[in-house]
Design a protein that fits this description.
9 helices, single chain, five-stranded mixed sheet, alpha/beta
Length: 281
């Protein structure tokens, strides 16, 4: 977003320090002017903020249609940092060893405390962030995706703008037969933050939750999935302004177009269930 030039430079330096073949770098200025970039890094400045999925899709296309000029793309938040020099090598080895692996989700930890927030472990049993596992979604700001996934199922849903775009792509990838791994040994340092710091958080989370269900779930699961999340939201007892924004987004999700519907197969529902996260929660 153009407001963290020092953090961005530190991230790019950590990418340049990775072992093995150099990593090609594209920095997308999402409605923002980019600071000077190191030699070899390409910059793309967008005239307006397209949102997280829109900006990342521009980055994908910067490597050819659906990223086809390369085999794997890394997505890293501009205020993150790769503290270990072997991270990219381990990513390359993981994809080479498993042709069915489509997405790798990194572990995110605060650089000062070493703590991984529970929301950054992409599974229900999140108490042990040091345990790697197969998962059903991934972290948007710290991941690697085989570009064949984009050719199979398309890019991120741009109309989401913010929230749940990763799960939308993950469900489509799983339905196409790809696997997703959470790797605790692949670390991105990132300051611990609360997602609710964004003014649009509660509305976007609720609206996109409805869109996610409408786009991807078999019809019988749509009310079940959304009913569970409605109940969870009420149990968490958010403030009245937050709850009002949430219900506004929930209603918006029903009355506005959600994009192309491609309901997952029932065998994918069973696969998600066996992985520990049935698509009702």
């Amino acid at each position: 977003m153009g407001d963290r030039p020092a953090e961005l430079r530190a991230l790019l330096d950590s990418v340049a320090a990775q072992e093995g073949e150099p990593v090609e770098v594209v920095v997308v200025g999402n409605g923002a002017e980019l600071p000077p970039l190191p030699e070899g890094a390409r910059g793309v400045e967008l005239p307006e903020n397209l949102g997280i999925p829109g900006g990342r899709n521009v980055g994908i296309e910067s490597f050819g249609p659906a990223g086809s000029d390369v085999d794997v793309l890394l997505f890293l938040d501009d205020d993150g940092l790769l503290p270990d020099k072997e991270t990219v090598r381990l990513v390359r080895e993981a994809f080479a060893a498993d042709p069915g692996l489509g997405i790798i989700s990194f572990r995110i930890a605060d650089p000062d405390t070493g703590v991984t927030q529970r929301r950054h472990v992409p599974r229900l049993r999140a108490s042990d962030p040091m345990r790697s596992s197969r998962v059903t979604t991934f972290l948007g700001g710290a991941n690697a995706v085989r570009t064949a996934v984009f050719r199979d199922v398309g890019g991120l849903p741009e109309n989401f703008f913010y929230a749940h775009e990763e799960t939308d792509l993950a469900w489509r990838a799983l339905d196409a037969g790809w696997a997703i791994d959470y790797r605790a040994d692949l670390l991105l340092h990132h300051p611990a933050t609360a997602p609710s710091r964004h003014a649009m958080y509660h509305r976007m989370v609720a609206r996109n939750r409805v869109w996610l269900a409408r786009r991807n779930l078999p019809i019988p699961l749509v009310p079940l999935y959304l009913g569970v999340w409605l109940s969870l939201t009420l149990v968490r007892r958010p403030s009245w302004p937050a709850l009002r924004a949430w219900f506004g987004g929930f209603a918006e999700g029903w009355r506005t177009p959600c994009g192309q519907r491609r309901a997952m197969r029932w065998r994918t529902v069973w696969r998600l269930t066996r992985l520990g996260r049935p698509p009702v929660i």
